[in-house]
């Protein structure tokens, strides 16, 4: 598909999502964004997850994966044809040019898939979940932005425990994301996830009722 044809399809998809209430959901690593989106899903809300889409578009034999292999070499693939995520992650964390090259391939494909899924959503409102919502400019598709927030110290503790990696590695990921103060300044709604899951679920339910009212209105 040519760039012009792709842009035309982007415009068409944007036209169709204009009448949907889209809530952008974001938060730093270890904030509990996934726990929040899972509870919204249990309440009957359609979730469009940028992380899931990013994995789906680089399945073996996909056009996007072929472009990645062409850019970074065939050794970026595993023997079974899947993307060697660990190797690619290492490349982009140590080389800004490689990171930009990957983004130039991935972001248009992710954006198109996001818009397709948003267009297909049928719940009263839809959640667009993306850890890099602001960094990738995805907030422009949303009417409101919800940030799941915890102190940086909590991010380090939870993410290190969950992913069994060093706190230094988690800190490097935090440093690569938008800072907490800026993220909060861009939020329309905030969930404080510094307590337990019961506290998180209560806030999600309250916001769900609020968003239903906004969608109907």
Automatic annotation (TrEMBL):
It is found in: Cytoplasm. Pathway: Cofactor biosynthesis; coenzyme A biosynthesis; CoA from (R)-pantothenate: step 5/5. Its main location: cytoplasm. Transmembrane segments: none annotated. It catalyses: 3'-dephospho-CoA + ATP = ADP + CoA + H(+). Keywords: ATP-binding, Coenzyme A biosynthesis, Cytoplasm, Kinase, Nucleotide-binding, Transferase. Its EC number is 2.7.1.24. It comes from the Bacteria. InterPro entries: Depp_CoAkinase (IPR001977), P-loop_NTPase (IPR027417). GO terms for cellular component: cytoplasm. ATP binds at residues 30-35. GO terms for biological process: coenzyme A biosynthetic process. Belongs to the CoaE family. Catalyzes the phosphorylation of the 3'-hydroxyl group of dephosphocoenzyme A to form coenzyme A. This is Dephospho-CoA kinase. It comes from Psychrosphaera haliotis. The gene is coaE.
């Amino acid at each position: 598909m040519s760039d012009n044809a792709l842009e035309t399809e982007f415009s068409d998809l944007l036209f169709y999502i204009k009448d949907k209430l889209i809530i952008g959901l974001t938060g730093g690593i270890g904030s509990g964004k996934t726990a929040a989106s899972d509870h919204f899903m249990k309440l009957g809300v359609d979730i469009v997850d940028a992380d899931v889409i990013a994995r789906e578009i680089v399945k073996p034999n996909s056009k996007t994966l072929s472009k990645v292999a062409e850019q970074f070499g065939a050794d970026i693939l595993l023997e079974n044809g899947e993307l060697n995520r660990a190797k690619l992650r290492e490349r982009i964390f140590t080389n800004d040019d490689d990171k930009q090259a990957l983004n130039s391939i991935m972001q248009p494909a992710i954006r198109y898939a996001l818009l397709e899924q948003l267009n297909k959503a049928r719940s009263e409102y839809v959640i667009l979940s993306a850890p890099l919502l602001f960094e990738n400019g995805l907030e422009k598709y949303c009417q409101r932005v919800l940030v799941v927030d915890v102190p940086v110290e909590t991010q380090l503790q939870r993410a290190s425990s969950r992913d069994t990696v060093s706190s230094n590695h988690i800190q490097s990921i935090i440093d690569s994301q938008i800072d907490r103060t800026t993220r909060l300044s861009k939020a329309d709604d905030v969930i404080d996830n510094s307590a337990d899951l019961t506290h998180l679920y209560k806030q999600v339910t309250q916001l769900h009722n609020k968003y239903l009212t906004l969608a109907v209105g």
